[in-house]
Amino acid sequence: MAPPPSLSTALTHLEGDELFYMHDLAISPNARGLGIGQRLIDTALNYARQDGYEEVALVAVQDAPAYWLRQGFAPSPTSKCLREYGPGAQFMKRWLGTAEPA
Questions:
Q1: What's the rounded Cα separation, in Å, for the pair 86 and 54?
Q2: What are the φ and ψ backbone dihedral angles of 87, each rounded to 5 degrees?
Q3: 22-46 pLDDT per residue, tens
Q4: For residue 68, with 0-12 CB atoms within 10 Å meaning exposed, 13-18 middle and 19 or more buried, which class applies?
Q5: Direct distance between the N- and C-terminal alpha carbons of the chain, in angstroms, rounded to an integer
Q6: Closest Cα partner for 6 from 86, 61, 85?
Q7: For 65, which DSSP code?
Q8: From start to end of the chain, where are the E strands?
Q9: Which residues, at least 6 apart from 78, have a Cβ–Cβ distance to it below 8 Å?
Q10: pLDDT tens across 43-102, in order?
């Protein structure tokens, strides 16, 4: 499995297609509380499912791990050092397939 992409690096090609990565989901403070974030997440997850992905991954930063836990993501091991993402960064995944992975 390919590790998460490095921060601040333009992606010129994909290393693999076994995971759908979500990155930089942000909502304007003026739009918070309107359900826009949930609609963005739902849209991304539906797109991943329709495109045949069985897992979605992300790196949760700052105080976001608890938020992503509520969205069905779980901490997952990665070979990549996440120091560049800041203190407390966690690699997390969510299973989208019909059967749990072995």
A1: 28
A2: -60, 140
A3: 887 888 999 989 999 899 999 999 9
A4: buried
A5: 15
A6: 85
A7: H
A8: 20-21, 55-60, 74-75, 90-95
A9: 3, 4, 91
A10: 999 999 998 889 999 999 988 999 999 999 999 999 888 998 899 999 999 999 765 655
Q: Residue for token digits 């989208």?
A: 96
* Distance in angstroms (rounded) separating the CA atoms of residues 58 and 90: 8
As to burial, measured by CB atoms within 10 angstroms (0-12 exposed, 13-18 middle, 19+ buried), residue 87 is exposed
Element (H, E) at 42: helix 36-50
Q: Residue with structure tokens 């690096």? A: 9
Core vs surface per residue 15-43: b (16+ CB within 10 A) or e: eeeebbbbeeeeeeeeeeeeeebeeebee
Tokens of 27: 């909502």
Question: Whole-prediction pTM value?
Answer: 0.80
